[in-house]
Amino acid sequence: MVVLAHQAPSVAQRCKDAGAVAAIALLLGIPMLGLTTVDQGGSLLVATRWPTLAIFVALCFAGRLLARYAIDALQARARRRPAATLLRPGARHQLSLWLGWGCFGVALALPFVFSDNRYIVDTATTVLIYVMLGWGLNVVVGLAGLLDLGYVAFYAVGAYAYAVLSTQFGWGFWQALPVAGGLAASFGLLLGWPTLRLRGDYLAIVTLGFGEIVRIILVNWTALSGGPNGIASIPRPSFFGLPFKPGDDSATFAGFFGLDFSPLHRLIFLYYLILALAMLTNLFVSRLRRLPIGRAWEAMREDEIACKAMGMNVTNVKLSAFAIGAMLGGLAGVFFAARQGFISPESFTFNESAIILAIVVLGGMGSQLGVVLASLVLVLLPELGRDFAEYRMLLFGTAMILIMIWRPGGILSQRQPTLRHRAEAGAAP
Amino acid sequence: MALALQQLINGLTLGAVYGLIAIGYTMVYGIIGMINFAHGDIYMVSAFISVTAFTLLAALGVSSVPLALVTVLLVSVLFTSVYGWAVERTAYRPLRGSTRLAPLISAIGMSIFLQNMVQLTQGARVKPIPPVLVGGFDLLTVDGFTVHLAYSQLLIVVVTVFLMAAFTYLLSQTSFGRQQRACEQDRLMTSLLGINVDRTISLTFMLGAMLAAVAGVLVTVYYGVVDFYIGFVVGIKAFTAAVLGGIGSFPGAMLGGVLIGLIEAFWSAYLAPEYKDVATFAILILVLMFRPSGLLGRPEVEKV
Amino acid sequence: MRKKLLLAGFSLLACAASAVHADHLVAIAGPMTGQYASAGDQIRKGAEMAIADINAKGGVLGQKIKLEVGDDACDPKQAVSVANAMINKKIVFMHGHWCSSSTIPASDVYNESQIVMATVSTNPQVTERGLKNIFRINGRDDQQGQVAGAYLADHFKGKKIAVVDDKSAYGKGLADEIAKAIEAKKVKVALRESITAGEKDYSGLVSKLKSAGVEVMAYGGYHTEVALILRQAQQAGLKLTVMGGDTMTNSELVTAAGANADNVLFTFVPDPRKNPGSADIVKRFRDAKIEPEGYVMYAYAAMQLFAQAAEQAKSTKYADLEKAMRGGAFDTVLGKLSFDAKGDNKLPGFVVYQWKGGKYDYVGK
C-alpha cells in the first residue's frame, strides 16, 4: 500500500515501497517470465529464464523508486503553486476552437505536402475513417449516454450495402451513399427498439451481441455477402463520373485535367472525400447539439428520470440517437468498402467496436476535437509501432491504460465545470 | 435420446466452466459496477500457468494424478490471484471515482496487454499437455451410440458444485462476506463504518481470479490445449452468462453459465452449429426484453 | 531487430567490399504477429536464407537484394496499410501476403502501383480477378479439394464421410471443393457442418459425428481445430480419420494432438524437401537449425523466382519483370516453375500425405 504522506518519505520507506513492488513483480514474473514451456519433438519441456526474471524484477524496483521520486517532486511543486487558478470561462472553448481549425488546416494541406508519399496519405485516410466513426458513436455514447459495444454492426451494414448495391446492381458511390446510410439507420432502430428498457451494462452486452449476430450472419449468408470470402472488386468512386484510369482522352480524371496519370490521384481524392464526409458529420452533429434533440440527448444522459418527469418522450430520444449514430457509422462503412475494394467479415469484429469506443472515451466523452486527437493516437500508435514489431500491441494496450489513468475524463472533456482547480485536475491547458 | 443425454453432459460441463468465470464478472460488477473485460484473460493466464505446472510436475516424475491435480490447482490459484490483484491495483484503482466508462476502456487495454504479454513470453504456438485424466464411464448404449461421461467432465462438475457451496458459505456467513455485501450496497457508508473498502475490493478481485484459475486448470485438463487467444471467446460467453443470470447475482451467474452451456450444446447437436452464437445472443436479448435485470437480478430501484 | 542483425551478418559474410549501390528492395508480408504468427515466421526464415544465398553469389544484376518485412496479422485493413508502406519504400517485388483475405485487397494496391507479387494464398479468387501483377507459386484450393475428395471417395468406400469447415475463406472454399469432388464420384456426403474457429469446445460436433456413424471427416480449416476435434473424439470414444489441406503441414498439429495426429491425412504440393535438386539447400536449412517445412521453401523459391526473372529481363522494372515471369521458366527449389495466363503455376498438383510419428510423408509410405 502506498502512503501519500505530505512530508517527504525517508529513503528506507522508499526502498520498502519499491521492495514491495519488486516482490509483486517477482510473483507475477515467475510463471510468465521465469518459466516457459518449449516444444521439444512433440512434447513440452519446461525452460527457465531466471536472468530475464531477475532483470525484470530489478527494473521494477528501480522504476518504482524513480517514479515515486518524480511523482513526489511534481506533487511538491504543485503544492507550492497558488492553490487555485481560475480559468476564464471562455478560454478553454477558445483554445479548442483554435486547435480544431488548426487540425483542419493541417488536414487540408497534408496531401500537398506529402503528395508523393502514399503511405502517409493512406494512413491519414484511415485516421479520418476513425474520426468519422468516433463522431458517429459520440452521438450514442458521448451525448445520449447509451453504452454501445456493437457499433461495428452499422459500419458493416453500410459497407456491405454499398458492396452489394455496386457489384450486384451497378449502383454508383453517390447513389448508394444515402441508401446505405438509411439502411444503417433502420438497423439502429432495430437494435434500439428491444433495448429501450435496458440500462447501462445490460445495454452494453445486448449491443455487443447484436454486433456479433450481424457478423455471424454475414459469415454464413453466402448468397448475399459472399460468406467468409467477402466481396471483392468493389468499384472505386469516380471523380464526378471521371474514373481514375490511365489514358489521355478526356474521359478519365488525368486526361480531363491534362495531368500525367498517377495512382496517387485516386488516393488523394479518397482522402479529400473522407475529409469532406467527416467535416459534414462534424457540422451535422454540432448543429444537432444546439437543437432541442441534442439538448434532449444530453439531458437524458444526465438524468433519465428527470427527463421523464419533464414529460419528454424518452423512447424517441433514445431511438433518434441510435438511428443517427448508426447512419453515420453506415456512411463511414460505405467509404471503407469503396476505399478497400474488398470487404470480408474479418474487418468487422468486436475488436473494431472496442477501438471505436476507446476513441470516444479517450477523446473525452462528447468532445468533437477529442475524438480527432484520440483517433490520431490510436491509429498512429500501432503504425509507428511497426518498428517495435512484436511489442507493438503490447505497447498499444499499455498506452490505453496509461492515457486513461493520466486523464480519466479523456484527453479533452466537455463535461468539466468552467471553474477549475488546477492542482486537482492535473495539467490545465 | 442417447444424443440428448450426451449433450446434456457436455452442456453441463461447458456451462460449469462458463459459470465459474461468470462469477468473477458478477462479483466485480456487484462491488464497483464495472465490466472487467480483462477477466477472460486472467483465465487464460491461469491456463498457461497450469500447463507449465503440469509439465514441471511430469518432469519431476509426479505420477499420481490426484496429487498432480491438487498441486496444480494450488499453484495456479496462488499465482493467478496475484494477477487479479495486480490488474485491479494498476489499471482500475487509479480510476475509482471517475466516469463509468474510464475503467471499461482501461480494462480493454489491460486485456490487449495480457494477451500480448503471454504471446511474447510464452510464444504464439498452442500449448498442449498429454491427457491427464483418461477414460470415463459408458452410461448406456442406444442404437450403437454410447453415452460417455469422461472422468474429466465429472471432475469439472464436482469441483464446481463444491466451489459453489464454499462461496455461498463465504459470502453469506463470514465477516468478509458481510463486508463484501456492504460494499456492494453503499461504499461510502461502509467506509464510514470502519471497513477497509479498498481491501475488500482487492479481495473480491482476487476471489474472482481464483475461480477463473480453477476454471483454467479444469479446462486445461479437459481440452488439453491452450493458446493465448482462449480468454477472449470464453470471456464474452461468461460475461453473457453473468448478464443473463442477472449481473451482480451470485447464483444468477451460475444459472446463466449452465443455461448458455446447454443452449450451445443442444443447438450445435440438433440445429445449425454455425448459428450457435446467434442463438445464444438472441435468447439473451429476448430474456432481457421481458426481464431487464436478467433472470435472478434484482430489479433496479429508480431513485429520484 | 534480430532480423536486421541477422541480415547484417549475412551481408557481412557475403559482401566482398563491393561498391555502394542502391540495393534491390524486395519484401515479404504475412502474419508476423497474431494467431497465425508461426506461418509468418516460416516465410521470414525462408526469405532470409534465400537472400543471403543470392547475395553470396553476387546478387541480382550486379546489386544486392535487401529484405523488408511487413506484418499484416492476417487483418485485411492492415494488409492494405502494409502494401502502401511497402510501395512507399519503393520495393520491386513482393512475396505475400499469406492469408487470402489479406492478399486480395493488398493485390489491388500493388497492381495500381505496378509491383509484381508472388503469393502462396490458395483461394481461387486471388488469380481470378484479371490482375496482371500476381503470380501464385503454390496450388489452388479447388485443385486441392479435387485431389482430397477423389482420394476419400476411392479409399474409404462404404464408410460415412463428413465434410466440415471453419467458416474461414480458406476453409470453406476447400471444404466446398472436397464435397463437390466426393459427390462427383457418386459417393454421398453423410454430414456437412461448419464450426467456429478459435473455440475450444467441439463436443457438439463430435457427438453429432458419432451419432451419424461417421468415420472419416474431411476438414477445411487450420490445424489447431483439428487437434482439438481429434482429442475430443478420442475422449468420446470415436475413432476418426481426418483429411485436411495444406495447413496440416504445421508441426503444431502433432504437438497438440499427440498420437492422434497419425489419423490425419492431408493434401499438399509435392514436398520440396524431396526434390533432388534442393537437397543441399535443405541441408543448409537444417544446419542452421531451421526445419524447411511448410512455407519456408516457398519463400525461398519466391526469392529465386525474382532473382532469375530479373536476370532474364535484365531489369527490375515492372513491365519487364512481369513479362519475364509470365513467359519464362525458372529453376527453383520447388522444381521448374512457370505460369499460365492467369498467373497460376503449372507445377504438378497436389499429393496426399499422412502424419506418422511426428513426420509427414506421402500416404502409404
Report what the structure shows:
The complex is a heterotrimer of chains A (429), B (304) and C (365). Chain A has 17 helices and two strands. Chain A is an all-alpha fold and 429 residues long. A two-stranded antiparallel sheet of chain A has the order 1-2. In chain A, helix 4 packs antiparallel against helix 13 (314-340) and helix 5 runs parallel beside helix 7 (200-220). Chain B is globular, with a radius of gyration of 20 Å. Chain B has helices at residues 2-32, 39-60, 65-92, 102-122, 151-173, 175-185, 187-192, 197-223, 230-245, 250-270, 276-290; strands at 127-128, 136-142, 145-150, 225-226. Chain B is 73% helix and 6% strand. Chain B starts with a helix and ends in a 14-residue tail after the last helix. In chain B, strand 2 and strand 3 form a beta hairpin. A two-stranded antiparallel ribbon of chain B has the order 1-4. A two-stranded antiparallel sheet of chain B has the order 2-3. In chain B, helix 1 packs across helix 9, helix 2 (39-60) packs parallel to helix 4 and helix 2 (39-60) crosses helix 9. Chain C is α/β, with parallel strands linked by helices and 365 residues long. Chain C has two domains: 2-139 and 273-337, Response regulator (Rossmann fold, 3-Layer(aba) Sandwich), CATH 3.40.50; 142-268, 3-Layer(aba) Sandwich (Rossmann fold), CATH 3.40.50. Chain C has helices at 2-14, 37-56, 76-88, 100-112, 141-155, 169-184, 203-211, 223-235, 252-257, 279-287, 296-313, 318-327, and strands at 24-30, 65-71, 93-95, 116-119, 134-136, 161-165, 189-194, 216-220, 241-244, 264-268, 330-332, 335-337, 351-356, 359-362. A seven-stranded mixed beta sheet of chain C has the order 7-6-8-9-10-13-14, sandwiched between helices. In chain C, strands 2-1-3-4-5 form a five-stranded parallel beta sheet, with helices on both faces. Chain C has a two-stranded antiparallel ribbon with strand order 11-12. In chain C, helix 1 packs parallel to helix 2 (37-56). Classes of the chains: A mainly alpha (429), B mainly alpha (304), C alpha/beta (365). Chains A and B meet through helix 1, strand 1, strand 2, helix 7 and helix 12 of A and helix 2, helix 3, helix 4, strand 1 and helix 9 of B.
